[in-house]
Structure formats: C-alpha cells, structure tokens
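call fold target=HAT C-terminal dimerisation domain-containing protein
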Amino acid sequence: MDSIIDNIQGEINKSQGETGEPIRKKARIEENSRKREALEICDAVLLQIKTRFNFSRHLVASNLFMSEKFSVYRHQFPESFLNETCIQFSFLDQNMLKNELQVLYQRDELSTTSGAVPLSILLNEEGLICTFQETLKLLGILITIPMSTSEAECCFSMLKRFKTFNEGRKT
C-alpha cells in the first residue's frame, strides 16, 4: 500500500509540474487540496482493507467439511479447526458438533459429496436434520458467508481509480 501511496503522490507532483508556468496561489491551494483528498482516500482504502481482512479466522470452519480429508479425519479428528470454529461461532455446541462430525466422517456415503452446499442438501434430503443440527447450522453459516473475489476483470486497479479521480479534478 505504501508503494500505491507513493505512486499517487508522484502522479500529483507530476501533474503539478506539467504546465511549466509559475503556479499561482489559488492553483497551489487547489493542488494541496487535491493532494490532501488523495491521501484521505488512501487512508480510507487502507482502513477498509484492514477491516475486511482482519476478520478471516471464521473461514477455518470450511476445513471441517473438506470431503477429501474425511478419511484422514476418521483417524485424527481436526480438534484445532473445531476449537477455532467454536471460538468464532460461540453459539455452537462444541461437544454436539464434534459428535456429529465424527459420525459424518465415518459415513462413506457422506464423504463422497464435495462442498458445503451438496453436503447440506444431502443431509436435508436424507432426513437427517434432527441428527445433524449443529452441523447443518454451521453449514448454513458457511454457505451464506460472501466470498471475496480476486479476479482482475471484477475490479479496477486502485491506482487507475485514483488517477481518474485526479484527472477529473483538474478540469
């Protein structure tokens, strides 16, 4: 992020020196104002990034439902994942969830599903709602957590946004 801020400051400084004419007092005030606004935007973006990625420990819960690991979990239960999950979602009954997951890992027909949604659908279709209450509660949470995307075509470059913002302010 520091390099992005430096690039923005460089763009601002470059745009100030493009005219080659002495900068009047009013223009200097406008340039300082633009620089301050750009830095405020950077601060806001940094705050959003920290806020967004600070709370990511809840994603550990998805490790409990990785069907390719069920055979490993049969012999070595993932206590650390369960403990972290129950810390993040304190309303879950840890003992009940552990018992349900142990049963889940032992059943071959349940280990063939891949993903939280198919597993949730299978448990509902098989009428196991009462048997796997805590598991279904956790699956419901995992299914509804929005996933962020890092695909380039889904978002613009922040530097490009800042440049566009500053260019719009020049006119």
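return ok
The chain has nine helices and no strands. The mean pLDDT is 74.
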